[in-house]
Amino acid sequence: xxxxxGSLPFSIExxxxxxSFEAYGAVDSVKIITDKFTGRSKGFGFVEMTNDDEAQxxxxxxxxATVQGRAIVVNKSEPKPExxxxxxxxxxxxxxxxxxxxGGNNRGGNDRGGNRGGY
Length: 119
Description:
Blueprint: E1 2-6, H1 14-22, E2 27-34, E3 41-49, H2 52-62, E4 66-67, E5 70-71, E6 73-76
Antiparallel strand pairs: 1-3, 1-6, 2-3, 4-5
């Protein structure tokens, strides 16, 4: 079972989290999610446990428990439905996505219109 663990103290290490869950059974993996730019914890992570009964007991016992002065949130991690994933290539402003200077009025360079500068 994949378990979501939220409201984690930013200072907690994966080894500490693993130890908390191993009190309830075998832990396959522990992953604390970090900011890719700063490397700092985002305050949540995931624990994977093989045995669903042990995992459910860990959820029941640890949800709301205080870890380093913070009440943590622990529940079963449900995968997001495919349609709800956040897309980074959507143009959320709507309308036209032409940048900056008002679109097609090219004011620079060569004037090929009626004004030929006296030639």
